[in-house]
Amino acid sequence: MKQFKQIAIPEGKSRLANDLDRIQPYSAAEIITYDTNPDSECELLERVRAADCIIIGSYSKLDGAIIRQCPSLEYIGLAATLFTGQGANIDLEAAAERKIAVTGVSDYGDYGVVDFVVSETIRYLKYGTRNRELRGQPVGIIGAGTVGSLVAKSLKVLGAEVSYYSRSSRPDLERDGIHYAPLHTLLQRVSILSVHVPRNTQVLGKEELDMLTDGTLLFNTSVGLPIEPEAMRKWLNNPRNVFVADRDGIGYLEEEYTNFPNITFYPRSSGFTEEAERRLADKVEQNLKAFLTGK
């Protein structure tokens, strides 16, 4: 079987840590791994400079300056969703200039996010200050990709009145009675709002938060906070408003925001379940095999 000469996994606590035995056959040399994340671009470069294959997660940024200083690099495998534009953590133009293949993984952690949003919604309604039903509750979904659509359909099945805002309409959602609404219209009609947008995409500022009903339950499981930070602080000063996020959804502001009593913070990535870990390893391995075999 064709192999890479050297695979490097530069991030500590890699999502592939439990599956290295599956990846090792694709590297002639022992895979280079680390216990900690690189704390600078220089350290990241030193960890990957000699590799012809790099596998990274979503937390390190592989920019053009690093890519251009890796003379043997042929392949970059992202053990996460591959975003473009401002959400990308790989300089895709620099990779294309060098004719370096870049692959990502999708649809591996969606179901855990759905479980998290649905279960926390029910917990809030049943065990908060009042005992309420999900049936008939006006719910808004921002971002109707795979995860947003699954959340919308799951809440609809349980009786919620669900509408969505997205860059494009979704006929499959419309057929299920989940209707599109312009963003500002959506914000003014819902009491529960769940955000599912690409990495580091800001969609809510002061104007949008001011449109929400007093006492709104707001979810974010997108990678990075999609809300303007100062507007978020002011919104949280109203103790009736509630914000629920996992580790991905609160990002670098974890220490500051978890001091608010009206935040529920889940200190893990809600989508990265044991089942998702297996799906991720399967897809990373499939991508490696496809590149090496030319399929």
Automatic annotation (TrEMBL):
GO terms assigned for molecular function: NAD binding; oxidoreductase activity, acting on the CH-OH group of donors, NAD or NADP as acceptor
UniProt keyword annotation of Heme present: no
Cleavable signal peptide: none
Residue ranges occupied by any D-isomer specific 2-hydroxyacid dehydrogenase catalytic domain in the UniProt entry: 29-295
Pfam families tied to this protein: 2-Hacid_dh (PF00389), 2-Hacid_dh_C (PF02826)
Keyword Transmembrane helix: no
Coiled coil, from the record: none
Matching InterPro entries: D-iso_2-hydroxyacid_DH_PdxB, D-isomer_2_OHA_DH_cat_dom, D-isomer_DH_NAD-bd, NAD(P)-bd_dom_sf
D-isomer specific 2-hydroxyacid dehydrogenase NAD-binding domain mapped to chain residues: 129-238
Top-level taxon of the source organism: Bacteria
Alphabetical keyword list: NAD, Oxidoreductase
Family of the protein in this entry: Belongs to the D-isomer specific 2-hydroxyacid dehydrogenase family.
Protein name: Dihydrofolate reductase
